[in-house]
Amino acid sequence: MDAADAALLVAVGATHGVVVDADAVGRIGRFLDLLTVWNRRIRLTGDVDTRLLLRKHVADCLAPIAFLPGAGLVVDIGAGGGFPGLVLGCVRPDLDLLLVEPRRRPRSFLSEAIRTIPLPKARALEARGEDLPDDPEVCARASVAISRALRMDIFLPLAAPILAPGGIAISMQTPSVGEGRVSQVAAAASLTVREFRDYTLPDGEHRRLIVFTHA
Question: Is 17 left (phi over 0), alpha (psi -120 to 50) or beta?
Answer without folding.
Answer: left
